[in-house]
Amino acid sequence: MQSDMPRRGNIHSVESLAALDGKGIRYEVFFMGCPFRCAYCHNPDTWAGEGTMHPTAEELVAKIVRYKPYFGKDGGVTLSGGEVLVQSEFALELTRLLHEKGVNVALDTSGGVPLTNSVKSLLAEADMTILDLKFYDDDGYRRYCRGGIENVLATLDFLQSRGACVWLRTVVVPGINDSEKEIEKYADIVRRYDCVSRWQLLAFHTMGFAKYDKLGIANPLAGTPALPKDRLAQLQDYADSLIGDRYGKETKSL
Ligand code: SF4
Fold this sequence. Notes:
globular, 7 strands, 9 helices, alpha/beta, TIM Barrel, binds iron/sulfur cluster
């Protein structure tokens, strides 16, 4: 039997003027829930349970549109987490309402969720997707994220088939994936996807360590140092040289 109750999101938190996840100034919504348990996760408090807000899509849109004047021509809303795709039906409703208000929507996802109809509809509705390519093979995913690569590649295949605008991101962790040889293995995957217009390497940092202590969760990377900035720059240059200049390839306006 269909419920008449409006659907509500389970939201960890929001950030009204964010600038890191997508183009321009963005209103960022962090969804609760995640299928992965990445060893380097700095948001373990988003993995499970109840967040701080349970709005309907209409309520959230009413909050967001107050910030529309700040978005300018490039900015908008980024739906992140945790993992936005685990609440794909709510996120789809939210995205459609934001589009009705003329607000651009980006998804920031691990791609670790099976491609259900609502996940596909959400990926197709969003203006762009920022996808984590965490490891280049299933072993890496299983070892460090406690999940597989299969859904990630299926998500990329789907985005490619739609001619979507995709940015990839990879966190680089000292001693785990910080060699040129490993970057080459990632690049072998990136090169397969024309839809990818940007591949950004991110430095592992230790700022999330305190959350593990607070939550009483064992930190698998305790003792691992942050990746130095100059090493990140070297690896980013190398990564760019392997995939070529893709900055002109965005097929949907942001
Ligand atoms: S996918 Fe993101 S939120 Fe989920 S465990 Fe990995 S880093 Fe954390």
